[in-house]
Fold each of these.
Amino acid sequence: MKQCDVAVAGGGVVGNAIALELARVGLRVCVFDRQKPGQEASWASAGIISPAPENPGMIATVELAKCSAALYPEFVAQVEEISGLSTGYRRKGTLEAIFSRDAKEELSTIIALHHGLGLKAEPLRAEDARELEPALSDEVEAAVLRPEEASVDNRLLTAAVFEAAQRSGAEIFPASRVKGIWREGAHCRGLLFENEKVEAKWTVIAAGCFSAAIEGISQYAPVKPAKGQMIALRADDLEIERVLWSEKIYVVPRNDGRILAGATVEYVGFDKRVTAGGLEKVLAGALELAPRLKDARIEENWAGLRPDSADHLPILGQTDLEGLLMATGHFRSGILLTPVTARLVREWITEQKVSVDWERFSPLRFQSAAAGVTRHAPA
Ligand SMILES: Cc1cc2nc3c(=O)[nH]c(=O)nc-3n(C[C@H](O)[C@H](O)[C@H](O)COP(=O)(O)OP(=O)(O)OC[C@H]3O[C@@H](n4cnc5c(N)ncnc54)[C@H](O)[C@@H]3O)c2cc1C
């Protein structure tokens, strides 16, 4: 029987970043993925590193997101150094375009919200926004510049984190589908596979939107897939420097000249097929925001499944089974939240305390919400 200090179910960017962090402090970490690691949401993502809340429901994640965005430069530097691979990190800022006739009012509301949350944001007149980003539509009435925000090429990052984790001593096992957790009384003793068991002092579930299918997990991580369709474009004579947002869409420039546009949010189960309606929605939003993209060539399209939870918040931390942790449910922000997730899991495993309050994201909140009771996790 295999034995390790920490067994991680899921080799997406979250699972492998946790493995990297723990291997670097000398723990024996094993990561198990049912297929080739890094081929799910971490591959399909847009890679925007923005702690600004997309809607009022996401305000609860802002502190965690700010912390993770602040960790990013150090995180990518470490990953790049250990792996020898680039991550395509770009800290060029983001620009949110406002089309509304009441642009002035909307602009001051957004700026006040950002400043209230301690986020750096500057109001821009339409002409100033177009001077920064000439690709923007003439219909844009105003814009918000968030100068410190960034993006990363999530496919490169995921591959680099995988390599860095392995080079740091983590063992990563592809084609190893986790069937369930190995439970004994109030303890989790590791993971169960079709024909074997792996014993571990700590077990971390990081299987993205598939986490709930692992036996024994659905009560802690009742996640479901939220499909997102994306398109990669390439345009001659069109420079886009920053991530551009509108109410409907985002456009993300990559270092290799590709321009990504996305994404839909659809609740259609585990269906990853690209549809005409999905692409139409993404393209219409992209062309409204930057009409000169109409001549761009379509290089690729794809869909991926975000791990969403009932309250759309991440699911992080200790469960009521000793030794069992969740690190999933990152929904639309898993790339952004990777560094802080890895750090908090490492802190909990090595010190049994965390430097950022993660109580709000507890895996026990779904049970207590159902029963209307106060929850207690083992220390
Ligand atoms: C279209 C799209 C756009 C996005 N844009 C952004 C963005 O701009 N910024 C941002 O921060 N986030 C974004 N996200 C969200 C982000 O990509 C995810 O939150 C993040 O990648 C989740 O990472 P993960 O490692 O938890 O999950 P995944 O990458 O899905 O990895 C889970 C892994 O677990 C494995 N697995 C599943 N079941 C089992 C099992 N039983 N046994 C073993 N292994 C198993 C899978 O094979 C997979 O490799 C986007 C997502 C999508 C789909």
Amino acid sequence: MFFFDPLWFLIMIPPLIFMIYAQAKVNSAFKKYSKVANSQHITGVEAAQRLLQSNGLGNVKVEGVKSRLGDHYDPRKKVLRLSPAVANTPSVAALGIVAHEVGHAVQDKTGYAFLRFRSSMVPAANLGSTLGYIFVIVGFLLAMFGTAFGMTVVWIGVFLFSLAVLFSLVTLPVEFNASNRARQMLRSTGMVSVQEYEGASAVLSAAALTYVAATLQAVAQLFYFVMIAMGMRR
Ligand SMILES: [Zn+2]
């Protein structure tokens, strides 16, 4: 079984280490720039309201969310949700994160293609990541016990899992684009000084790394599944 395959660990450990590194980087950047107050003393909520207004998004509501770094924009409900540390703090980190989420709201308003594609893929990706594993494992067991269609089941699993990988890949341009929009907004509105801009930007860059790490994990897993499907692991 592939849980005992040393090759599986060999393939999965580098992206895992990268993920741990990326998360440490986000945490340290967020911690550092959460302590740096922005010179205009704008809290996350205030920044959200201002940036939404200036982008003609007065219809988007701003709400709270409990989880740490759980800030997100919900395109279905047109709601921007901010965590307590972002919403109520006039920090440099808060400005970066809020501007990023407003960036998603702008993507939604302008019908940014990757965001639309990503949203449409959510159900398939959820199903694919769960069923993919099940089909690969069950198919592998069937093949091991000499069932003729075992490998076909594995290939179906590979196909299902590739939907989750595709979702993860499409997430990258969506996230990078939102951060680029955020940087542009922060610059053009004059909300931040040059120094503060650097700080907010550092938080966004660190956050982007975690998405890259997640994609690498998914791609590595798919690569291993393909090896099983091709009969390279017994
Ligand atoms: Zn985002």
Amino acid sequence: MVVTAHPDDEAGGFGGSLRLYRERGVETFVLCLTPGQAATHRGGAQSDEELAAMRRKEFAAACEILKVSRGIVLNYPDGKLHLQDLYRVVCDLTLYVRQFRPHVMLTFGPEGAITGHTDHSMAGVFASLAFHWAGRNNRYPDQLTNGVQPHRPQKLYYATATFALPDRQPITLPPVTATVDIGDYFETKVAAFKAHKSQSPLFPLFENHVRQRGRQEMFHLVASVKTGPIALETDLLAGVQED
Ligand SMILES: [Zn+2]
């Protein structure tokens, strides 16, 4: 389960891993908090509503390319996740965790990943709390009806990198603890990003940066049901127990 802020984050931040693990038979679920209606690049849209509708379709097309099992775009306001009621947003996310029942969750760290976007920071904060609270029967107990049960995912990762974007405010990234070799799915990831046609002015910048990074996606293990010293990983499912 991947929790993001904007349509295109799923491809740019997690696309290679989403496609790779789907190929390995893993069910994948992307939950995107906003329809990206505040984007600078508007693809000719005349209003926020029109842009939101356009970007929902682009998200669905990208999910198709990445063969995501289930992709959902919620309706929180783009650019304003830090102004939302934390307890309410985490309530929404916790219910999705309890329904989808992921073994592993991926999101951004509180630094906001390489772009440092406040929405990325907040998506990571909300998702981290949902990760920790979904398994406790004393958090949002009202949800625990009609077959909804607490669910404790086994691992939480933040997307990270070993470089910073030029000409931006400094960010302090979490150290890399897991490096996933995405192989030829690198091209699938680029194709999924380019499904976000309204964001086409970003394509050269994106492609330049991902090509420099190569065929790897990097993550930081934040929490794990297995305690003990951290191990460097090449597989996000390492040590994960099947139900
Ligand atoms: Zn984003």
Amino acid sequence: MDILKKCFEFNGVEELKASGTYFYFRELDSAQGPEVSLNGQRMIMIGSNNYLGLTTHPRVKEAAVRAIEKYGSACAGSRFLNGNLSIHEELEEKLAAFVRKEAAVVFATGYQANLGAISCLVDRHDLVILDQYDHASIIDGCRLSFGRYVKFRHNDMNDLERVLRQEADRSKLIIVDGVFSMEGDIVRLPELVELARRYGARVFLDDAHAIGVLGAEGRGTEEHFGMDDGADLVMGTFSKSLAGIGGFIAGPKKVISWIRHFGRSQIFSASLPPVLVAVVSTCLDVILEEPDLRRRLWENTQKMSQGFEKLGLDTGMSETPVIPVVLKDPMKVYRMCQALADRGVFVNPVISPAVPPGRELLRTSYMATHTTEQLNRVLEAFEDAARENGFI
Ligand SMILES: Cc1ncc(COP(=O)(O)O)c(C=O)c1O
């Protein structure tokens, strides 16, 4: 028996490529802006998580250059040992203050933040309760832990209560996305927190798509709902509004100290490069000092969700700059993706396992820096492509 046999016999990629329906690893040769270049062709990008457009913000780029000049390219070691800089500690304080928690710890990616924090918090007899639409990194964190996990129906508080009631005797952690990454709807946090308190569970909020986007100052889901102290722990990633890569967990000092010392994806992995520390720190300043960016992001969001509605396209439950166009069939998704690419629009196809089978969609998302003219072109392309394929 050859362990590599399955790889040699798998032809799925070649088959998709031959049928012209392979839309992965597309090679861009430009910055991740509202327009990108793909094989020399200009395309409007509506597949990016660069919500505030900060990847090319002059202050952010300048901070990155300064950090490289001062600290070089990397720390060549774990935070735990030789790779800890004072700017890491400063960033953690800034992040904690931003999401209004006592303390924070940073990780090299958002994925690693979920993996490390969940796996070290959840013990053999503990239970994790997940929304069925939670991000894959949350599920993988549960798989790495010694505990058990169960799912409740998406954003359904009655179903959550059913699980909480059934599992009354266990130590419980409820983990949810603040903004669900594929559907773009917002967790019903006030009701969820109320249930958690009633049944003695703790709440872990993954605010990857909410930071910089939700709340008057962009502080995330808790601010959106006007909650001072809703979740016990807030997780965030730097790969979306914060224009870098990395992640963090914020919460009570003692819990963060536990994660710092037992979160294996932090201890056994090299520290966040100084350039990214500087980028994220500057993005936090820009978010607070340039609220106009968030206003423009929401204007663009409103324009697009109204535009899709007018075209008769199904945008599911979206309430945020993540707006799915739900087609419920992988081939329909691929056909639209190609038709849109032909019209100069870059959009992401989403099929199972990223969404449940039968929920296949195009995930569109918007930036503060998209112009009205670009968004009009996107709507025209959608209308044209959907008519051509008989979807409207
Ligand atoms: C909800 C959610 N959590 C966690 C992550 C992982 O973050 P990163 O890509 O920064 O590692 C993502 C990224 O796609 C996400 O959407």
